[in-house]
Every structure is written in structure tokens, then in C-alpha cells.
TrEMBL record:
Pfam families noted in UniProt: GSHPx
Keyword Oxidoreductase: yes
Keywords in alphabetical order: Oxidoreductase, Peroxidase, Signal
Annotated Gene3D superfamilies: Glutaredoxin (3.40.30.10)
InterPro entries noted in UniProt: Glutathione_peroxidase (IPR000889), GPX_AS (IPR029759), Thioredoxin-like_sf (IPR036249), Thioredoxin_domain (IPR013766)
Signal sequence interval, chain numbering: 1-21
SUPFAM superfamilies reported for this sequence: Thioredoxin-like (SSF52833)
Name recorded for this polypeptide: Glutathione peroxidase
Ranges for domain Thioredoxin: 11-181
Species, as recorded: Stutzerimonas nitrititolerans
Domain of life: Bacteria
Keyword Chloroplast: no
Length: 182
């Protein structure tokens, strides 16, 4: 009797797993390598059902101080379900070739606690699939470092913002709050 109950429980659990995986939005159906780690970030596992700000970053850019504002945004809204994903990119020739230096800028210089990935291409046909999806939904690929895409809990781009829009800009805050409500 116990064996059949265990088998039934296992069968039910296995039947549910594909249904949960099928719910993952296309935007999040990817993995990226974490910064200074051998681990990979499964975007579905980490961000499904959460609002998300995705930003392409660079360590040697005039907009690099935005890390401080992005961290503040994350701290302000993380308990409401906001995540921030930083994706370093050298597409604009302002990211270090040394991953340790990139990590130092993020973690030591700016105190970043949100998820950061290893350097990835973010525009053109070489763009990582996440950024191809973001560009398709938003109708715009990043034109420079620190482009910010706000994604709702269903994996849909709510809005995007240029490098010049700071993380504490009321328009970006409004988009984050909208994404958190959906």
C-alpha cells in the first residue's frame, strides 16, 4: 500500500513539473553564467513571477555610477518582488577583459547585491537570447551601456529607458511599480 502511495505521489509530482516549466515566459527561458562564478543563472528559476529590471552594464563608462541607483532601486522594491539583473557587455568597448575587475567594480566599488552575469553581447545578431527577446519586445536594442528594460511578472517588457535615465527617475519608478502590479 505504501509503495503504491509513493508511486502515485511521484507520478503526480512528475506530471506537474512539465506544466510549471511550460509556464516560463520565452523571455526568461534562458541561462546565463554568473559573474565570478562557475554557476549559471536559470532565468526562469530565478525570476519567474517577479518584476525585473534588466540592464546592460560596463565598468568603464560615464554611466557606471548608476550601479548605486540600481542597488537602491533593488533594495527599495525587492520585498515586493522586484529583481535586478545586470549584464556586463563590451559591445560599446567599455567593459574590462578581466572578470575580476568587473566584479570589483560591481561588488566592491558599488556594493551591488543583485544578480550580475558574466560579460555578454547585447546587440546585433550576436546578442545573447535574453537581449534579442528584450529588443524584440521593446522594439529597441541597447544604444549604449546602462539601457534599462522593465519586465512585468509575466515576462513582458513594460517599458525601456536609455542610459540617460537614472534609476531614481520618476518615469522608471512608475514603470517598476506598474510591473510589480501586473
Amino acid at each position: 500500500m505504501k509503495a503504491s502511495a509513493c508511486a502515485m505521489t511521484l507520478w503526480l509530482a512528475l506530471a506537474v513539473i512539465p506544466a510549471v516549466a511550460a509556464e516560463c515566459p520565452a523571455l526568461l527561458d534562458h541561462e546565463l553564467p554568473k559573474l565570478r562564478s562557475t554557476e549559471r543563472v536559470d532565468l526562469c528559476e530565478a525570476f519567474q513571477g517577479k518584476a525585473l529590471v534588466v540592464v546592460n552594464t560596463a565598468s568603464h563608462c560615464g554611466f557606471t555610477p548608476q550601479f548605486k541607483g540600481l542597488e537602491a532601486l533593488y533594495q527599495r522594491y525587492k520585498d515586493e518582488g522586484l529583481e535586478v539583473l545586470g549584464v556586463p557587455s563590451d559591445d560599446f568597448f567599455q567593459e574590462s577583459d578581466d572578470e575580476a575587475e568587473t566584479a570589483e567594480v560591481c561588488y566592491v566599488n558599488y556594493g551591488v547585491t543583485f544578480t550580475m552575469t558574466q560579460t555578454q553581447p547585447v546587440r546585433g545578431h550576436d546578442a545573447t537570447p535574453l537581449f534579442r527577446e528584450l529588443a524584440e519586445q521593446a522594439g529597441r536594442a541597447p544604444l549604449w551601456n546602462f539601457y534599462k528594460y522593465v519586465v512585468d511578472r509575466n515576462g513582458q517588457v513594460v517599458d525601456y529607458f536609455s542610459s540617460k535615465v537614472k534609476p531614481d527617475d520618476p518615469r522608471l519608478i512608475a514603470a517598476v511599480e506598474k510591473a510589480l502590479q501586473q
